[in-house]
Amino acid sequence: MPAAGTANGSTGNGSAAARAASPQAKIAEGRVFAYDKANGFVVLQCISNDNPNAATKKFDLRIINTCTITSVSIPAASSTPAMDLIPVSAINWETSAHREAANIRLMETKLAKIGVGVGRDAQDLFDALSKTMECRWADSSIVVMDRVIISPPYRPENCKSNDQSALQRIKLVVC
Q: What sections of the protein cross the membrane (predicted)?
C-alpha cells in the first residue's frame, strides 16, 4: 500500500482509506485499521450498516483474509467520509479468561455428546433421548439418567436397568 498522504486517500491522521473487493463481489470500504502480513489479514474500520445516516457514526471492524481480496483501490480523499480511527481500549484479561474458560466448558459438553465409533442411528437416538433426559456415552453404550444402559444395536431388548419403571419408559422411546 502506498505511503500515507492526502493524494492517496489518507485521512490526515496517517491512516489510509481503502476499498477491497472479494470473489463473492462483496466490497468493503473503510480506513485501514491494521494489517498483519504474517497471518494474512487486514482490518478495515467501516461505517456500521446498522444506521449509516445517524448523527453519531458507529463503526464496525471487518477482518478480511488477504487471500480473498481480488483488488484494492485507494479512493480520493474527497470521496471518503471523514472518520478518525476508533481508539483501542485496554483488554480486561480476567474477563477474557473467564469467557474463554466458559467457552471451553461449553465445547467439552458438546463434544461429550458425540459418540465415538457409533453409527448415525445411534447418534440420532442419543440426540433424541438427550433432549428430555440426561444422557452420556460409555464407550459405545448410551447411559440414560445413570439408570438405563442401551447397548448396540440400540433396540428395546438391548436396554438394561434395575429400575423397571425407567426401563419401560426408555424402551418405549427406543422402539
A: none
